[in-house]
């Protein structure tokens, strides 16, 4: 039995970036064998500012990248 506040995941109640990706027009994946650098799908996704923001936020919120106030730069936490 589902809890009362259970919300079925749908595109409509997903994050904004998921809703944007769901509206992607038809695209080819490019070359065969698959090369992510040639993918029209990846190019389209990267051309969407909301998706880029969501990607950046994903890594920042998980602590994988940090901002150094003194230098005014971002870096991966594995870099000294």
List keywords for this structure.
3 helices, single chain, 80 residues, alpha+beta
How would you portray this structure in words?
It is a single chain. This protein has helices at residues 16-21, 40-46, 49-61; strands at 65-68, 73-76. The protein is built from 3 helices and 2 strands; from the N terminus they run H-H-H-E-E. By secondary structure, it is α+β, with helices and mostly antiparallel strands. 0% of the residues are buried. Strand 1 (65-68) and strand 2 (73-76) form a beta hairpin. The radius of gyration is 18 Å and the shape is flat. It has one domain. The chain starts with 15 loop residues before the first helix and ends with a strand. A two-stranded antiparallel sheet has the order 1-2.
